Amino acid sequence: MCIRSAKNQRGYALLLVLLIIVLVGVAAPPIIANAINVVSQNQQTEEQIQLDHLEEMGTVYADAAIDEARRVTTAGFEVDGDQSVQDIIDEYKDDFASNLDEFLSEDIVLDEGRSVSVSDTSNETEAEGENELVIAFEITAVNGEAERTVEKSRSITITVE
What is the average per-residue pLDDT within 127-146? Predict the structure, then answer.
């Protein structure tokens, strides 16, 4: 009787192995697809984070360039006694725009594939009020094949004493 029960179990083992193969075959593709999707999303998120950091770096660079252009313009600026206030402001704007272009002339290249460029997009440095100056600039962050361009502006006040 032992021999018959052993022969009967062989059929069940084959059936069990086939069932396990079918279950693995049905369950594996969605799991693999999900894993690939997670890797892809992680990579896209990492690229966006890098672009955010590069954009912030460009903003800090532009702010520093504006501050330095203002410092250099103010330090080297001389006023003639017979100039009107508007002439003084116009001359200051021209000097400031020239200094700003000089400070924004170089791109920041971090390594191959990652860079930040900042450009002054004001055709002429725009004046909001008589002594309010608005500087518009564009930041282009490049991370490999991903690229993001953002326009920002900053205003400064010109005080004539």
Answer: 79
